[in-house]
Design brief:
377 residues, alpha+beta, five-stranded antiparallel beta sheet, five-stranded mixed beta sheet, 11 helices, 46% helix, 22% strand, elongated, binds adenosine-5'-diphosphate
Length: 377
C-alpha cells in the first residue's frame, strides 16, 4: 500500500475517534446543548435534554426554542437571542424558566453563543444548566430576609417615635445631659433602620420590584431636611451645607433621600477621627451635581471601582471596625441610575473621600419657556 494511503486511513481513523470522543462528551455532559438556527428553530438537542426537560431530542427538533420559555421570561430570552445574533462567537448568559414535559417549570441558566458564521455549525449554540434548586434556595432566603426585616421595622419605627417624644420633653426641661445620651441613642436607631432598609432593598433590587414614584423633587430642600435629621443624631460631626443652590429634578423623593442618607451616614461612619462633612449642590448645563465630602479614612484606588457592587466592602484588617452589609452604595447607584444619573467617588487613602452624583434637571430650570420635565418629554 502506498504510504500516503496508509497515512490517509490512519488520519481518517483518528478523525473518527476524535468525533466519537466529542459525541460521547456531549452525550454524557450534565448540561444540555442545543443548536438553534437563525429563525430560532431547534436543529439539535443533546440527549441530556431528556433528563433536564423530559423531552427526547427528537420531540424537540424543529420546534421554536422560545416557545418552551415561561411567558414572563420570554421577552428577556428573545432580546438575549437577538443580542447574540449581533455578536460573533461571544457568549451571553441568561436565566429563565423552561417548561418540563410534565408541565412544571424548571429554572435554567442558558449560555448562547453565535456560531451562525461557523461553517461547521451554522447555528446559535445554547448550553443549558438546571439551576432550579439554587433559585428555590435564593427565593427562600429572600423571603426570609424580607419577612425578618419587615418584622424588625415596626419596633424600630416605634423606638424612633418615642425617642423624638423624649427629645422634646428633655428640651423643654433643659436637660442637656439626657439630650446628649438620647442623640447617641437616636444615632444607633438610625443605623439600625438603615441596616433594615438595606436588607429590604437588596431583596427588592434582586427581584426588580423596587417601586419608584415620579414627581418633581426640590433637591436643595430634600438635602436640607435630611441634613437636619441626621445632624441631630451625629453630635460628634458637623454636617455643613457648603453651597446649596435650587435644583429641581424629577423622581422619587424617598429614594433620592435614601441616596443622600447613605452617603452622609457613610461620611460620618468612615471618619471616626475627623469631624467635618461638607455637602454641596451645583447645577451646570442640564444637570445637578450633589457631593458629600469627608476627611476620614479614605479609600485606596484599587477598591474605588468596586464600591458600587453588591456586598462589596473594603477589606478591614481589624475586622468589624465598621459594621455594615455592603449594600448602601449598591442601592444608591441603582437608584441614581434609575433617575438617569451617575455616581462616582474621588478619594485618597488616609485623606478622605468625596462621593458625587448627578441628576438631570427638570427642563424648566434650564430652558426658560417650557415647563415640561425631561421625563415627560
Ligand atoms: P457598608 O454597609 O459596608 O458601609 P456601603 O455599600 O455603604 O456598605 O459601602 C461599601 C464600602 O465602601 C464600605 O464597606 C466601605 O469600605 C467603603 N466606603 C463607603 N463610603 C466610604 C467613605 N465615605 N469613606 C471610606 N470608605 C467608604
Amino acid at each position: 500500500m502506498p504510504s500516503h494511503a496508509k497515512n490517509g486511513s490512519a488520519h481518517s481513523q483518528r478523525e473518527a475517534q476524535s468525533e466519537q470522543r466529542f459525541r460521547a462528551l456531549i452525550e454524557h455532559s450534565a448540561d444540555a446543548i442545543a443548536l438553534i438556527d437563525s429563525q430560532g428553530k431547534l436543529l439539535y438537542a443533546s440527549p441530556s435534554t431528556q433528563r433536564l426537560l423530559g423531552y427526547t431530542p427528537e420531540e424537540l427538533l424543529g420546534r421554536i426554542a422560545v416557545d418552551l420559555v415561561h411567558p414572563d421570561d420570554r421577552e428577556h430570552a428573545m432580546s438575549t437571542l437577538a443580542a447574540v445574533r449581533h455578536t460573533q462567537e461571544t457568549s451571553l448568559t441568561v436565566e429563565y424558566r423552561l417548561q418540563h414535559k410534565d408541565g412544571t417549570w424548571r429554572w435554567m441558566e442558558a449560555t448562547a453563543t453565535n456560531c451562525l458564521h461557523n461553517p461547521h455549525l451554522k447555528a446559535i449554540v445554547g448550553n443549558y444548566c438546571d439551576i432550579t434548586e439554587r433559585k428555590l434556595a435564593e427565593q427562600r432566603k429572600n423571603e426570609f430576609i424580607s419577612m425578618a426585616s419587615h418584622e424588625l421595622k415596626t419596633p424600630v419605627t416605634s423606638l424612633k417615635g418615642f425617642t423624638q417624644i423624649l427629645q422634646r420633653r428633655f428640651t423643654q426641661r433643659g436637660d442637656e445631659e439626657s439630650l446628649r445620651f438620647l442623640a447617641r441613642m437616636d444615632g444607633q436607631i438610625n443605623r439600625l433602620s438603615k441596616l433594615i432598609n438595606d436588607m429590604l432593598d437588596i431583596v427588592r433590587l434582586e427581584k426588580g420590584t423596587l417601586a419608584y414614584r415620579e414627581e418633581p423633587v426640590d433637591l436643595a430642600v430634600l438635602i436640607q431636611e435630611t441634613v437636619e435629621n441626621l445632624q441631630a443624631s451625629a453630635p460628634n460631626h458637623q454636617l455643613q451645607l457648603e453651597h446649596i443652590v435650587p435644583a429641581s429634578v424629577f423622581g422619587d423623593p424617598d429614594r433620592l433621600g435614601q441616596v443622600i442618607v447613605n452617603l452622609i451616614m457613610n461620611a460620618i461612619k468612615y471618619s471616626p477621627h475627623a469631624d467635618t462633612v461638607l455637602i454641596h449642590i451645583s447645577t451646570e448645563k442640564q444637570q445637578a451635581t450633589v457631593s458629600v465630602q469627608d476627611f476620614g479614612i479614605g479609600i485606596a484606588e484599587v477598591h474605588q471601582q468596586h464600591l458600587f457592587e453588591r456586598f462589596y466592602q473594603v477589606p478591614d484588617p481589624m475586622e468589624k471596625t465598621f459594621p455594615g452589609l455592603g449594600i448602601g452604595l449598591y442601592s444608591a447607584s441603582e437608584i441614581v441610575k434609575r433617575h438617569q444619573g451617575r455616581i462616582w467617588v474621588e478619594s485618597k487613602k488616609g485623606e478622605g473621600s468625596t462621593f458625587r452624583f448627578t441628576l438631570p434637571l427638570r427642563k424648566h430650570d434650564t430652558s426658560s419657556n417650557s415647563a415640561t420635565t425631561q421625563r415627560e418629554a
